[in-house]
Automatic annotation (TrEMBL):
<comment type="similarity">
    <text>Belongs to the bacterial solute-binding protein SsuA/TauA family.</text>
</comment>
<feature type="domain" description="SsuA/THI5-like">
    <location>
        <begin position="41"/>
        <end position="252"/>
    </location>
</feature>
<keyword id="KW-0732">Signal</keyword>
<protein>
    <submittedName>
        <fullName>Putative aliphatic sulfonates-binding protein</fullName>
    </submittedName>
</protein>
<feature type="signal peptide">
    <location>
        <begin position="1"/>
        <end position="28"/>
    </location>
</feature>
<dbReference type="GO" id="GO:0042597">
    <property type="term" value="C:periplasmic space"/>
</dbReference>
<dbReference type="InterPro" id="IPR015168">
    <property type="entry name" value="SsuA/THI5"/>
</dbReference>
<dbReference type="Pfam" id="PF09084">
    <property type="entry name" value="NMT1"/>
</dbReference>
């Protein structure tokens, strides 16, 4: 938990979020943000806090509840009134499938270009084909990393089971396993990659997959009904922070480094943020339905989703700024 500087690591972002909002109808100024303080998917939250974007809109965020991602159950009970959560799309859809009143209210990351797996430089592993008969790590079951890893293997024409997939939780745990030789490829993202340049080589990326929406913003139907103005203010603040990241990447990176603390230096933050700007990493909130469909199809192909979906039951873009809503 960042208060705003202390981290409480919890198991599953979507579970934490549902429990948090269901636990109380009162709004405590907190946000659930998967990988906050470590990865850049939640950098807009950090920038919005540091620039006072929430305060300008009457929202006082004094706590960011982080997690290591994924979404296998709804068992983590958090006594918090968090009305907004940043989670993986796969985790959000898993929560919806389990009967929770999840509403997806923003599309936050709509590319897979930041996700890639690395190997050790002397391993001879330079493609996904080189990993047949070997072990590859991902974070957690039902996480985005598991979903897209399975999709990439299938797209490469490699039969299921020919590569052993190992869930190791945090990304750092996967990299440690790679260095020990326990796995032969591990997931890495920014800013970890910029902070470890030269230590690994890229084994494979996800360029063989279609564009997908990997991270979304979620609330519950109850919270949205009771607190529509607060939800709009949160989404407006996040959008303003994304604009600032694209318009002033160096200054924004310094704010991210400040918010994340000693784990992220300014130098590494600047390099990582500039790379994210180049790949058009952060979405302002509006939905790319082709990207949502592509993620769902990956889940369906893996047997993690059965039957059709009515996106109108899951997505509500009415809390976004008008120019980001579907026409």
């Amino acid at each position: 938990m960042f208060k705003i500087s202390k981290l409480r690591s919890l198991t599953c972002a979507s579970a934490m979020f549902v429990a948090a909002v269901s636990a109380t109808a009162a709004y405590a100024d907190s946000i659930v943000a998967s990988h906050y303080g470590f990865l850049l998917n939640t950098a807009p939250i950090a920038v919005a806090i540091e620039r006072g974007e929430f305060e300008k809109r009457g929202i006082n965020i004094d706590e960011v509840i982080s997690s290591s991602g994924g979404g296998t159950s709804m068992r983590n009970q958090i006594a918090s009134g968090a009305g907004y959560g940043v989670v993986g799309t796969a985790a959000a859809l898993a929560a919806y499938a389990e009967g929770h009143d999840i509403k997806i209210v923003s599309a936050n990351v709509m590319t897979l270009a930041d996700l890639f797996w690395v190997s050790m430089p002397d391993s001879g592993i330079k493609s996904i084909q080189d990993l047949r008969g070997k072990k590859v790590s991902y974070t957690k079951p039902r996480s985005t990393s598991e979903t897209v890893l399975k999709a990439a293997i299938a797209a490469a024409g490699i039969p299921e089971g020919e590569i052993e997939l190992v869930s190791l939780g945090k990304i750092g745990a996967g990299l440690a396993a790679l260095e020990r030789g326990d796995v032969q490829a591990a997931l890495i993202l920014e800013p970890l990659y910029s902070g470890r340049l030269g230590k690994y080589q890229i084994a494979f990326d996800l360029s063989n997959l279609p564009r997908m929406t990997q991270t979304v913003g979620v609330t519950t139907a109850e919270f949205a009904k009771q607190n529509p103005d607060k939800l709009r203010a949160i989404l407006e603040a996040r959008r303003a922070a994304v604009d600032y990241l694209y318009e002033h990447p160096v200054e924004a990176a310094k704010l991210v480094a400040k918010a994340y603390g000693e784990k992220l230096t300014e130098e590494v933050a600047i390099s990582a943020v500039q790379r994210m700007v180049e790949i058009d990493y952060w979405g302002r909130g509006g939905f790319d339905m082709a990207g949502m469909d592509a993620m769902l199809e990956s889940l369906r192909a893996q047997g993690s989703w059965d039957g059709p979906i009515d996106w109108n039951d899951v997505i509500d873009d009415s809390f976004l700024p008008k120019d980001l809503q579907a026409k």
